[in-house]
Amino acid sequence: MMAFQKTKMNTTLLPRLLACSSFVLLISLSSCYYDNEEALYPVRPGTSSCDTANPTYALTIQPIMQNNCQGCHSGSAPSGNLDLTTLDNVIAGVNNHHLMGHVMGNSYSLMPTTGSLSDCNIAELNAWIIKGMPAK
Ligand code: HEC
């Protein structure tokens, strides 16, 4: 009876231990990553850090659009019929075209289609929207 219980415990405990330790490993890996501010918020030229405190269209958002979106979202036939070269159009993108849904890639196709924005740029976009999408 004792022997049976011991075997049973070992077979159920091992997968749990494995699952638990890989979970702990995952958590510690990701916390290492998120502790690394340089990797999370790469410093852009002209800024001291990732600007989530006072992001503006002129200084923060326009460069993100220019560097990551306008290659497809500009000109006479912009992708998705969405031009992202002006403040009004970016605001319309947020309000009417699920822009953040696309940037996060949740429920909508990931934008840019070529790969996700940096965590810093996503944080800046979120902060800018929360602050009411100021021009400058
Ligand atoms: C390589 C080309 C490309 C790049 C770069 C790109 N997009 Fe797109 N985008 C598309 C295409 C193609 C569509 C239409 C198909 C779709 O919705 O997946 C689209 C659609 C969208 C839409 C939905 C429009 C609508 O009304 O349905 C949004 C919002 C959007 N993109 C935002 C962005 C943003 C913001 C960026 C930059 C962070 C970006 N895109 C970068 C090609 C691109």
Spans with pLDDT under 50 lasting ≥5 residues?
A: 23-34
List the bound ligands: heme C
- The strand count comes to 0
Pattern of helices and strands = HHHHHH
> Number of DSSP helices?
6
How large is the radius of gyration?
22 Å
The helix content is 55-70%
Tell me the number of structural domains: 2
The major pleated sheet works out as: none
Beta-strand level of the residues, as a percent range? Answer: under 5%
Provide mean pLDDT, rounded: 81
Structural class: mainly alpha
Shape: globular
Structure, explained:
With 136 residues, the chain is mostly helical. The protein folds into 2 domains: 2-35; 57-130, no CATH class. It contains 6 helices and no strands. Helix 3 crosses helix 6. The longest helix has 34 residues, at 2-35. The protein is globular and about 65 Å long. The model is unreliable at 23-34 (pLDDT under 50).
